[in-house]
Amino acid sequence: MLSSLTISEAHKKMKAKEISAEELMRSCLERIDAVDTKINAVIWHDAERALQEAKKIDQKKSFDDPLAGIPFLTKDVYCEVGIPTTACSNILRNKNYVPPFESTTTKRLKARGALSIGKVNTDEFTMGGSTETSCYGVTKNPWDQTRVAGGSSGGSAAAVSADECIFSLGTDTGGSIRQPASFCSCAGLRVTYGRTSRFGAMSMASSLDTTGPLAKTVEDLAIILQAIAGKDPLDATTGDAPVPDYQAGLTKLLKGLRIGLPKEYFLPGMNKEVEAAIRESAKVFQSLGATIVDVSLPMTKYAVATYYVLCPSEVSSNMARYDGIRFGHTVEKPENLIDYYERVRSEGFGAEVKRRIMVGTFALSAGYFDAYYRKAQQVRTLICKDFNDAFTTVDLILSPVAPNPALKIGEHAGDPVAMYLEDVFTIPQAMAGIPALSLPCGFSKDNLPIGLQLAGPQWSEELLLRAGYAFERETEWHTKKPAL
Amino acid sequence: MTSLNADQVRHIAKLARLRLTPDEVEKMSKELSSILKYVDTLSEVQTDGVAPTAQVTGQDTVLRDDVVLNPPLASPDDLLASSPLSITSHQITSPSAHG
After folding, report:
1. Where are the domains of chain A?
2. Does the global pTM surpass 0.95?
3. Where are the alpha helices (DSSP H) in A263-371?
4. Contact B95/A349, CB-based, under 8 Å?
5. Which fold has domain A2-260+390-479?
6. Does the interface predicted TM-score (ipTM) exceed 0.90?
């Protein structure tokens, strides 16, 4: 099955004229037809358009770029010209919003010849950790369809794991690339805040949002990052840091690398299978020449609480644009403008979005700003300091991605705080704006994937990918596929 | 402050331009209270003299060059066409603020 190829494998075959871009695209489309009814990852695609694009690439006969002719799926928050983009929210779905402009990230990929197949599922406006808040319904885990694929980039992870595409795009605000990658057994990268452009990706929490890839291997992540990283005049938060040659950096040795194990991520009562898989992974890094050092990140236990003040506050501001005037849902015969706003928003937004808008509006309201918003911003400073201190003694930090393997569908229904606590290991890195890699590192006895997380200082993607690449060559977890 | 009663929930909803049903108010009151109770653990953290972090780029007021993009990222007509409301003379006809 061609759709199970990695980017680098497919590239070699197209370049050697063993396969065409059209054949590769057809294989992805056939796979979507065959398995997506079981997992509900793909929410929109246009097979005819995708095949036309593939034929155009074949006609050019130029496969020098590693991304030329590579089919990908995009989380439903990246605006693409002419392609319905709804953030899996009724507020945009009801009028089938079709953006008149293109996100920088998809534009950069397409300029390299990568081919967009369509859109994958996400929690509504990326607010959630399970895709259960999507207006299209939950994405099921390819490894066990009674479980969630994770979230919010659950569709992106499930689609890669199920070989419906060669790679996908996700976004990571508090773990939304890393956690679904670990639940579905694929590779996912949260970049340094500002490494990739967010222009045209619908905002959730602007001081935390990042755009990034999910793929089948670390080498593929490096290829995608090379195409999407770098300054964008349309996103003022993108940084000037030079973009290194990520692929060339992969094969350097790990000898002398110091990897920290944070004690706050290994708590009594934690899932034993997850703990064992991470400790086993540490041994693999040791065998590759790295030194394992114990470190402490004492503010870890406050990260989720900090996040659930700052994120909803930014949400309440960002969601103000969905007022039914310039785009999205509308209602008939409003009494006046306020009536119109209230009816549009109340009909269009789902429960989790409303919940976050409410929490954020409260935290920013007169009388409570200092006690909640400002306090959380101060704690954020201390979380950043935790990492800065740790990185004076270690190069990277190794931890689990999530406390448990994939949750059952509905496991935390009606208990938002329990759901939020599932993000306990992925929020701290987001708060500090540092990059982190999620990689397959084992399976539970129930055959559910377990993921490891490597985090590094700002702009350390090259080192993260190098360490991940070395781990991947020593292990076979990433080669395992779900039976669908 | 670890709980929000129904009146407070309705007040916040008004600020947020949301209209909640009585059931939603009741549910939201419970859920928001549990979230705020959890968030209150932050009061354990000593933050006197700690500067707040709003963003982590290290950048300060990034300005773009004052040039007109030609061609524009999207045409004005295409942007207007995204509106669910009717367009008259290149303006969206929004509901009257006064009813």
Report:
1. 2-260+390-479
2. yes
3. 272-287, 303-318, 337-348, 351-363, 369
4. no
5. Amidase signature (AS) enzymes (3.90.1300)
6. yes
